[in-house]
Design a protein that fits this description.
mainly beta, seven-stranded mixed sheet, four-stranded antiparallel sheet, 0% helix
Length: 115
């Protein structure tokens, strides 16, 4: 499974940004898809994940109400809509495909929230 994330950038506090991740290889609709992030000097943390069908989603408390994860199984893509961004959202964001016993990681995309 190969994952290609895009959409990162430099934005101001309160702005919105949409991350996308395109997957190739494997059976996309069988994977839980997730977004993790890693801020400088900190460990990677789960931001949000979504079930294979898209029915179930899960969010870190720090992003609930501001971020929305979605997927399009016809296009093998997963997205993360990020609204009301805060400086503490600054991190490298990773797209992850979660299978039984193994996680596939994309290369990461930088999100910087700064005035």
């Amino acid at each position: 499974v190969q994952l290609q994330a895009s959409g990162g950038g430099l934005v101001q506090p309160g702005d919105s940004l949409r991350l996308s991740c395109a997957a190739s290889g494997g059976t996309f609709n069988t994977y839980i898809m997730a977004w993790f992030r890693q801020a400088p000097g900190k460990e990677r943390k789960l931001v949000a994940d979504i079930s294979g069908s898209g029915t179930f989603t899960n969010y870190a408390d720090s992003v609930k109400g501001r971020f929305t994860i979605s997927r399009d199984n016809a296009k093998n893509t997963v997205s993360l809509q990020m609204n009301s961004l805060k400086p503490e959202d600054t991190a490298v964001y990773y797209c992850v495909a979660r299978t039984l016993g193994y996680d596939y990681w994309g290369q990461g995309t930088q999100v910087t929230v700064s005035s």
